[in-house]
Each structure stands twice: as C-alpha cells, then as structure tokens.
Amino acid sequence: MVDHLANTEINSQRIAAVEHCFGASGQPLAVPGRVLLGEGILTKECRKKAKPRIFFLFNDLLVYGTIVINKRKYSSQHIIPLDEVTLETLPDTLQMKNRWMIKTSKKSFVVSAASLTERKEWINHLEECIRHLLSKTGQRPPTEHAAPWIPDKATDICMRCTHTKFSTLTRRHHCRKCGFVVCGECSRQRFLMPRLSPKPLRVCNLCHKQLVAEKKKTEEHHTQASPAESPLVGYDPSSGDDSDRSDEDKVEQWPADTEFYTSGVAWSSFHR
Fold it and tell me: Which of 2, 101, 110, 141 places its Cα 20 to 30 Å from the Cα of 87?
C-alpha cells in the first residue's frame, strides 16, 4: 500500500493539507517516498492533565500537535522518527483506558484511544511501519528510552523525600532522568545528558548520584571522552509538559495504589 501511494497525487494533496493546517509554525513534511497513512485524535497524558492531540502517522514519522480548530488549524508540532520508537501496552486506570506508551530516547509519553479496537489499529500500524523501517535500514530496535513524566496529580508530596507537601508556594518539579515529581530541595542538581538536551537538565538527588557514578566509571575505562551525541533537529527533549504551564488545575491526589508506567509497581514503592 505504501509503495502504491508513494508517488500519487492524492498522497501529495494529503501531506500538503497537513502542512497547511500547521501553518508557518510547522516543518515541511513532503519528501520523496513519504506516505501519510492515517490520522486521528488521541488523548495524551500531559503533566497537569490528559489532553486531546491530533496525530498523523506517516510511513517514517509520527507527527502530533495541539488542536486549535479541528481539521483546520493545529499548533505545537512534534515530529518523531519511527525508527527510534518502541511501544508498550499499559493497563487501564480509573482515569484512562486503552492506553499505551510511545517510547524514544528523547521523549516518552502515554496516549489513550477512544476504544480498544482503535488502540489495536494504531499499535498494529505503528509496529508495521517500525518493522519495515528497521528492516530497510538494518538498524536494531532502540534499547534506551527517556523516562515519561509522572503526572502532577499523581501525588501531593515529593516522591523522593516523601515529606515535602506541594502547594501554590512549593512547586512541583520533574527529574529528567526518572520522571518523578519532586520538590526543589530534592532536585537542586543539574546534569548534562546529551541525548536529551545540549544543556544540563534538572535531576533528582538520587539520579544525580547515579549519573555521577556512571560517568566516573566510564571515564575510568576510557582515556578519551567519546563525542557527545548531538540532538535531532526538531525533536524536543522529554519535557512531558506539552504546553501545560498555562493550566491552573486544582491538584488532586490519586490513590496510592495507582499504577503508572511500571507494570505491577505502585508509585509509592519508589520512595527512597
């Protein structure tokens, strides 16, 4: 089907329509051999609350953005190369059903579909595209993934020290290494993780100790430092907030036994 559509006028028109909906804020999407396979609205679990996002599946990319006017205008375009993606099906929660995680080394996040059938269709098409790309390039599936951010509403206390309560004055922060919701005192450190960003990122104290130890161990085994991996153009770090900063949502505590992104492990089990 991909080969059949690759050089057709209807495929060119569909891609042009997507480019037009994103306007000047979007990147050009029309390249030889690229095919738009489908589109749809999925719910993305963001930092403060779950939000609908428009997703476009190409044979080599997954593109998504914020809905301004459905089918007419979108913003905040994100582009994810499919050969860097792995998928993980997640169990339902009281708040969200038909969930799965989209994982890459730069950004990982959870989405949900309107039905179980819709989730199966999305996952089947995504996996087929990924398999085709990897076989075409000879690459192996990625093994390192950015940690998804635990939603703000998952806890009203720091997930590291477990005693600092969040309020309008005590802000929530996220560790870029583990994705935990932490207080300022537990996340004073910064660490350079070239795969995520060219600048040092906020990490919790525990992750900072682990990263420093790993760096020291690596330096002991290598007399010369390896060149840092440069970030992909148009491929943002694992921010997880997805334009949520303007939201003023009332903080609600989720049940302590709510499962998030680690199968069979409640977040309370992560306390240090």
Answer: 2
